[in-house]
Amino acid sequence: MATISYETDVVAWSNEQARLIRAGMFDLLDLEHIAEEIEDVGKSEQRELASRMAVLIAHLLKWQYQPERQSTSWKRTIKEQRRALSFHLKKVPSLKPKLADPDWQGAIWADAVTIAINETGMGGFPENCPWTIENILADGWLPTSNSNENKA
């Protein structure tokens, strides 16, 4: 019989639920909370994608708007975020449609601009993202400080 409450200790509860599943004791499962936890896994994957994309775009903004401060460190961060995003999208391919969702793109852009403002103290960033998703994710691509060729 299930004895550990989800509200009391979620880790102990999850271990107990796994044990019950492995033992075939399905009638004792806390199905409502199991369903919530499964949904949370998907939400967590979406949050990771959004967070990494916002950090990447914020660094691309800093690269474009602070050319005098461009550094190897920024390039490493851009490269690392691209690598992590590529891996994440391979691991969870069902997230790829998010990249084409205009509402999602708008939310990510807003997050990236907030990060860039907080890290630079600057304003004046575009209202909408001037780059394509393909550019943003392309290895080696960097925006130039005074080029219109990056506009989508």
Write a concise keyword list for the protein shown above.
152 residues; 0% strand; elongated; disordered C terminus
Please mark out the parts with pLDDT under 50 across 5 or more consecutive residues, or reply none: 147-152
Radius of gyration from the alpha-carbon trace, in angstroms: 21 Å
Report the helical percentage: 55-70%
Q: Tell me the overall shape.
A: elongated
Order of helices and strands: HHHHH
Largest sheet: none
Tell me the strand percentage band: under 5%
Helix vs. strand class: mainly alpha
Task: Tally the helices.
Answer: 5
Distance between the termini: 59 Å
Can you characterise this structure?
There is one protein chain. By secondary structure, the chain is mainly α. The chain has a domain at 45-137. The protein has 5 helices and no strands. The chain has helices at 10-22, 31-65, 72-91, 102-120, 133-137. The radius of gyration is 21 Å and the shape is elongated. Residues 147-152 have low confidence and may be disordered.
